[in-house]
Amino acid sequence: MHDVRAVKAPSMPRLAAAALAGTAIEFYDFFVYGTAAALVLGPLFFPSFSPLAGTLAAFGTFGVGFLARPLGSVLFGHIGDRHGRRPVLVASLLLTGASTVAVGCVPTYDTIGAAAPLLLIALRFLQGLGLGGEWGGAVLLTAEHAPPERRGLWSSFPQIGPAVGFLLANGVVLALSSTLTDAQFTQWGWRVPFWAAGVLALVGLWLRASLTESPRFLEIGEPVRVPLVEVVRDHWRLVLLTAGALAVGYAIFYTVSTWSLSYATERLGVDRGVMLTCIMAAVVVKGALTPLFALLGDRYGRRPLCLAGSAAAAVWMFPMVALLATGEPLLMFLGFLVAMLAFITMFAVIAAYLPELYEPQVRCTGAAVGYNLGGVVGGALTPIVATTLAEQGGRVPWAVGAYLTAIALLSLGCFALLPETRPVPAAKAVEPASA
């Protein structure tokens, strides 16, 4: 039985800011690896491979992080459902930060041979494990403190964190690329963003030190003994639907942020700094508009926005790859921007939508497992599949557009099968039932 004595709740702006900062730091750790995989990890850790095979191998180690994320959601979801949301935030941040710093210290293949890529894979796995727990803890702590009529707005702030983390990661890489020679960047400059993760992790721990536990968790009587068992037994269909529904968001984001960077610099000869600038500009707009779309979700419902976003993605994937293939900065930016707007139409409301689908007793496990399984379907495979498909096509990678459109249609179908969860007006509000 939890102690349900009154605990002074933090102000929502302060809580939202702490959640945003934490997710930004953890996603910085995750994204800086993706950028390094697209630019330098292939030649450094898989030098005996051809350029294509080296890129695929580097993206393979990138995908390992996604495979670890559902396991992290099970591990940290168990902690969150049995011991509270707050401990999850501290433990996941420590794990992700430490493993990211360690990546920056791994010797290359030329120094220690096959042990180098093996160490890289192990540390990437630990990164994914930590990030798998981060999202559930940060989102639930915010969503369960928020008033029901503004739950979408306040819980969207952790969703801005990935955009901030991406901008931090790529901003550091862009600054290093601009000030170092290619030889310096390849020799040691790529390690600096990983080392910076240690400082950011300490900042995140300081910000989260004063957060209080979720009031909804404190109201739970006896915690479920093994939350995963109950989720699998009673909510397996919901988990699969949410994983399929979220796949398109991951596919869009990592197509834009990771695969397109590799494709444009290697196949089209676009300058690395130009590509990073185009991608970062689209992500800035996406992050800035997140609260606006979340407010629309509070007013009109979660499901309508998700349906609209996945439908827009299905329509836009072919134009996006066509614009990318031009190699023209403004056209590439336009392609990325519209794709990111489709993405955020869905993901701005997901942080409120997923927790509302599950009962409080299994919410941390259920929401996090569904969210991170979507990452496996849409995020882990997309850079690998897109690289392979693009290699077999002409200048315009139409096969990549077809692949992304298929994922968008899958997600559209899954969203169509999910219920609406937006709370009724405050006077009639009740705790949302499990879908």
Helix fraction?
Answer: over 70%
Question: Major beta sheet, specifics?
Answer: none
Distance between the termini: 26 Å
Mean pLDDT: 86
Radius of gyration over C-alpha positions, nearest whole angstrom: 21 Å
Number of strands: 0
Structural class estimated from helices and strands = mainly alpha
What is the H-and-E element order?
A: HHHHHHHHHHHHHHHHHH
- Counting DSSP H or I runs of 4 or more residues, the number of helices is 18
Unreliable spans = 3-7, 426-435
Approximate shape: globular
Strand portion, in percent? Answer: under 5%
In short:
With 435 residues, the chain is mainly α. It has 18 helices and no strands. The chain has helices at residues 12-39, 41-45, 51-83, 85-103, 109-112, 115-143, 151-155, 157-179, 182-187, 192-208, 215-218, 227-266, 272-300, 302-326, 329-357, 363-380, 382-391, 398-417.
